[in-house]
Amino acid sequence: MNDNIIKNENENAAIPDAQFEVRPVVDITENADGVSLCFEVPGANSKTVDVEVRYGVLYVTAKSSLRRRERPIVYKRAFQLSDSVDVENISAKTEDGVLTIEIPKSEKAKVHKIKVN
Amino acid sequence: MRNLLARHGNGELDFGARDFDRIMRRFFDWNDDEFPLAMGSSKTQMKVLDDRVEVKLPAPGCKPGDFDIEIVDDLLTVKVTHASHDSSGDDEKHYLVRERSFSEYEESIRIPVSVKGQQADAKYVDGVLEIAIPREEPKQNAGHTVKVQ
After folding, report:
1. Taking CA atoms, what residue in B is nearest to A64?
2. Distances from the Cα of B127 to the Cα of A14, B56, B116, B130, angstroms
3. What is the DSSP letter of B19?
4. Which residue among A46, A116, B24, B114 is least crowded, i.e. fewest CB within 10 A of its CB?
């Protein structure tokens, strides 16, 4: 059952002639507290990465120092988020060409054990 | 259980093509939007400048100790081992999407000009291995005129 459909902005957005757009690979893992996304964006760092959430969609854009076909590479990918995430506390960091985004679950999405008396 | 993220794949568009796309990416270790022109296409980029040859290899998530670089005459060989990657906890992780690869990678490239391999310098910046190899100075009086009798 698909609750939501991932929208990849790459497929529909117009690609500027001056850039070479690449869809970065990602590992997404889930634990009790939230979801972790690790994108491979070689050549990009915290100064060239942009992460934002608009209307429930997470957009990732990362400009790389690498070039392909004489054009600078730009990594782009987008994911639809459910309303079970705590958007206000999303965090991101880059290290060695890997962008890691931590998306915490909202309180209502976490498992709450009820003690039975 | 409701997923926090949508499942990978688009039910409205050609789902078969997206699955095939995912398999091809893993097999060819390719993360481009375009279909590869040839199997095992090279990741390495080379630029020949006046005084040096610059080689760049994208290798995100590595450490400097993960690389073995060898230059023999005009042949450059780079091996990426991912030795620093800790995969011990991977089986316990709950993956929703798994596209990254940590397999060993090796590539040999022929350098088109004469270089001083012993003076090569390498650094790892923002997930990219950058190698700079000075070029040999052009030999003086390298030309020789042959007279026809």
Report:
1. B126
2. 28, 10, 25, 10
3. H
4. A116
The band of A107, judged by pLDDT with boundaries at 50, 70 and 90, is confident
Average pLDDT over residues B121-145: 87
Q: Is the ipTM here above 0.85?
A: no
A87 vs A78: CA distance, rounded Å: 15
Q: Which of A30, A29, A35, A50 is nearest to A99 (CA)?
A: A50
> Which helix (H) or strand (E) is A12 found in, with range?
helix A9-12
Instruction: Give the model confidence (pLDDT) of A35-72 as tens digits.
Output: 999 999 999 999 999 999 999 999 999 999 999 888 99
How close is the nearest chain A Cα to the Cα of B149, in Å?
Answer: 50
| pTM exceeds 0.95 | no
Residue A51 in contact with residue A58, Cβ under 8 Å? yes
Alpha carbon A29 to its chain's center: 12
Query: Looking at CA atoms only, how far is residue B33 from chain A in angstroms?
Result: 6
Q: Do A65 and B126 touch (CB under 8 A)?
A: yes
Residue A64's pLDDT is 96
Does residue A35 contact residue A81 with C-beta atoms inside 8 Å?
no
Contact residues, chain B, for A2 at CB < 8 Å? 6-7, 9, 11
